[in-house]
């Protein structure tokens, strides 16, 4: 996550440290390393981070200006994400005639779905399995960025509706968001019980929104209306210490022990990863905690800041 250039943004290097660990987990998963079968959970960690950062930005705007600044918000997301996506797609298109000419039609279509951020739904509709790693398109992994961009488009509108209906009462907005997250996770579990194909459940925006919304709930809880309007506060270093250590233990433990075929992922596993990721985020938001100091060291954020753009995008 590059350091923010605006005075209203806050850079926490420990969040880049979390991203680095998530990036490495995803890479190890696709390398099929036996000792980390659950590295795909790194994407779930990214989703919770994104929900946290995006909602924090929106809530600060609400406290400062009485609105979410949607036009500016959406333009910033577009400017931040689109150039990297277009570059990746153009490189793939340029190399395809030389390296995989017989796949040109598929990759051309895949590039368009990536640019318009509907890659996940295209994979679902056309039956492309995310878990068939050796046959996947080089653009197949754009699905997670598509989920995030769809969230960036629709969540601010839903949040604005919640704020208006609740007349700005944060407790009500938090409760409504928790209900929405529970509905997403509940639909995931129900779809799994009905025997839906794994890619449909794993890549669906509706089924994966819960992880993003857990991060959104955390952002609402730690963002306060103050004299400076919208300052983030984390009271209680001891609680933050416990939450951070417990969060990293659960996330790493599940990455080391969870197989991508585990059915519990779609019932309670991804819920647990989301909650643990929120605990980890709360822990590092108090930067003097042990986990905050370790993940905020200069080495970890440096390794992950560039790679994150091509896995789940940046959100600040």
TrEMBL record:
It comes from Arcanobacterium wilhelmae. This is Peptidoglycan/LPS O-acetylase OafA/YrhL. Pfam families: Acyl_transf_3. The chain crosses the membrane at residues 37-59, 80-100, 150-166, 173-190, 210-227, 239-258, 264-284. The keyword Cell wall biogenesis/degradation does not apply. Keywords: Membrane, Transmembrane, Transmembrane helix. InterPro entries: Acyl_transf_3_dom, Acyltransferase_3. Residues 13-295 form the Acyltransferase domain. The keyword Transmembrane applies. PANTHER family: ACETYLTRANSFERASE (PTHR23028), ACYL_TRANSF_3 DOMAIN-CONTAINING PROTEIN (PTHR23028:SF53).
